[in-house]
Queue: 2 jobs
Job 1
Amino acid sequence: MARRIIISGGGTGGHIYPAIAIANALQHREPDTEILFVGALGKMEMEKVPRAGYQIVGLPIAGIKRSLSIENLTLPFKMLRSLRKAREVIRDFRPDVAVGVGGFASGPLLMMASMAGIPTLIQEQNSYAGITNKLLAKRAQKICVAYPGMEAFFPKEKITMLGNPVRSDITYVHLKRAAALEHFGLDERLKTLFVMGGSLGARSINESITAGLDQLVEGGYQVLWQTGKNDIDKAKAAIDKLGTDRVKAFDFIYTMDLAYAVADVVVSRAGALSVSELCLAAKPSILVPFPYASEDHQTKNAMNLVDSNAAILVKDSDAREKLVDQALALLDDVTRQRELQTNINKLARPSAADDIAAEVLKLIQ
Ligand SMILES: CC(=O)N[C@H]1[C@@H](OP(=O)(O)OP(=O)(O)OC[C@H]2O[C@@H](n3ccc(=O)[nH]c3=O)[C@H](O)[C@@H]2O)O[C@H](CO)[C@@H](O)[C@@H]1O
């Protein structure tokens, strides 16, 4: 009989793409597996998951607003409605296993699944566990992590360290350079700086790049720039002002494999999945951790690489002053690029998605 698996969570790309990578690996191992995603209504996963070819159901859940907001008063009702909806989805789909990847929807879904006696597995991308995953861990059968020391948050006997699941098309990107140049309309004679702000975009990176765009273009380089939704108009205005066709800006890039393929040097936030992808794609990288991520975990993600001489760190507070200079220095220095490339690739976990899929399947008797 076909196996049925629910994968739940989302909110940002850092939760959605590992979920898609696990789903792809499951279908590769067991092609007749039926997979249903459960996300949060109104969140990014409701659009990105169907684009990746999977069905998704949305729960009416929301997070606490940090500012004093009347919306917070409706949260308990949203939680109750989400629990009820999660119970319905489980009753109708009858999954053999439920997988949680973090983000709002995984809370109610995994809670109801474990109450119904369905085995659950958690995949934690970061070196720091949020409150939802800590609570869910008590009832989960297996917890797959990407960083050491996670027994500080989870029961030790349930933890397996397998790395973060990365979409398989990000392997062997060096074979896709020609296709990537054509896809983005870039010039094969020029070296490319790929700037990525993560799934939501990064304001300080965007401002720093805007300020140094003329230097990059005058330096003879071209730029592929992923800005996030909020800054795309400003980025396009800066490009128009410079009157150049050597800078291509996008709010979101669906073909990340091609973006990595074309990049000689990458400037990026240090979200867990971005970091795992940079390892797999073996890209010389300058990381600018988002300083307000919980427990400053992006700095930890970045330092993990910097300590192995596998990436360069620029602090968010130094970005405006130093980022473009550092990018130009690295673009100019092929020896340093090779050194970073070799070292970052040693930290890649190419089999993570498949290893996690194997753990998921093991939970089905
Ligand atoms: C601000 C914040 O709290 N960010 C968190 C969020 O980051 P964020 O959602 O930015 O996540 P990551 O950097 O981990 O991953 C981004 C994912 O989105 C994909 N992508 C991104 C941009 C784009 O244009 N196209 C695209 O496909 C990337 O290839 C990657 O798969 O989740 C991560 C994983 O839990 C955390 O480590 C980050 O700290």
Job 2
Amino acid sequence: MGVRCVAIRACGGGKIDPGVPRMAVHACGAAAAVVALLSAAIALQWSPLYAVLQRALSLHTAHATKDMENLFQLVRNIVPALTSKKHKGQDGRIGIVGGCQEYTGAPYFAGISALKVGADLTHVFCAREAAPVIKSYSPELIVHPVLDSSNAVEEVEKWLPRLHALVVGPGLGRDDLLLNNVRGILESTKARDIPVVIDADGLWLVAQQPALIHSYHKAILTPNHVEFSRLWEAVLSSPMDSNDLKGSTLKLSQALGNITVVQKGEQDLISNGQQVLVCNQEGSSRRCGGQGDLLSGSLGVMVHWALRAGPEKTNGSSPLLVAAWGACTLTRECNRQAFQKYGRSTTTTDMITEVGTAFSRLFTT
Ligand SMILES: NC(=O)C1=CN([C@@H]2O[C@H](COP(=O)(O)OP(=O)(O)OC[C@H]3O[C@@H](n4cnc5c(N)ncnc54)[C@H](OP(=O)(O)O)[C@@H]3O)[C@@H](O)[C@H]2O)[C@@H](O)CC1
Ligand SMILES: Nc1ncnc2c1ncn2[C@@H]1O[C@H](COP(=O)(O)OP(=O)(O)OP(=O)(O)O)[C@@H](O)[C@H]1O
Ligand SMILES: [Mg+2]
């Protein structure tokens, strides 16, 4: 279908189900205001112009509405059916590469989010010291304390053939030994054509060595504002234009060989160098650490689902774009729901508790 560039904002009034596209309320509001002002100004004698303007604005709104309906539908199309015919593992075996002495929360958040979204198994590959801590948070994660060992790449390679997607970076840290091992793991992942989501310190590594991921069409980068600027400077060697974030996202993707880039922020901007999708799903003003980890873990599963579903289910749109838009929408909805309950005290753990209901509201038909 080729969704081009859509701006989506679901309103938070509570009357409209977030799962049923409460679309283009933003555009609707702006359009209504413009129409009201112009109609007052030009009064009755210019009524033909007014009519043309009104028609143009409602057409624009209708397109935004249609685009958003389409995106929700495309995400629904990729979600695998729950049936009694499947065995454990079929809906996703996801690897998380991250977790060091300082950061144990981030790989946990990413791994547990992947499971809560619907993956069957999650493997965390982390530094030795981080492993007992991560295991103690949750019995659901399979934890391999291998990332700082001398044969880290071989240890991870043993598991790679069984993994459907890899999420690289949450809580990885910037120790040279770990980063060097992750470089080898990424090479191996590419050689096996496994989709990879790169976040946090994984993006630090990519900024040091963009060739590592250049043109790998199963890669998705999920930078926050700071990480995006760092990548931009590394790849384009110039200051970025912060007045044109959409254009910058498109350009960074192109400069990296058209890999998918998700620039997180007040609105999430998603590009594969050809299209830019905008995710404006209502979230909240609460910015506790770990929300990006929830996003990267969710995306790990959704990218596997989208690629497995095939192009007919995504109606010609890039499966990676559809997966990224779905994961951003889900993360923001978790944030909205958790904030409604806990307000200022909302933490990422509260958001993870909301994954099930948020997913059903958005994507279950
Ligand atoms: N519980 C855990 O274990 C968690 C662990 N985590 C892990 O931590 C590691 C480092 O990740 P990171 O994101 O803190 O790294 P980095 O890019 O050095 O940012 C540092 C500084 O940049 C700024 N800043 C950030 N965002 C900004 C924005 N949008 N807009 C503007 N400024 C912004 C801000 O600077 P400040 O405002 O303090 O000057 C911030 O302090 C990584 O492994 C990650 O996975 C996290 O996942 C969280 C949960
Ligand atoms: N200003 C904002 N308004 C609304 N949502 C936001 C805003 N900034 C970020 N988000 C949402 O929060 C989620 C995480 O983005 P964020 O920029 O906080 O990532 P991060 O810094 O990598 O997080 P982490 O603390 O996990 O490292 C994304 O889904 C994004 O849409
Ligand atoms: Mg982050």
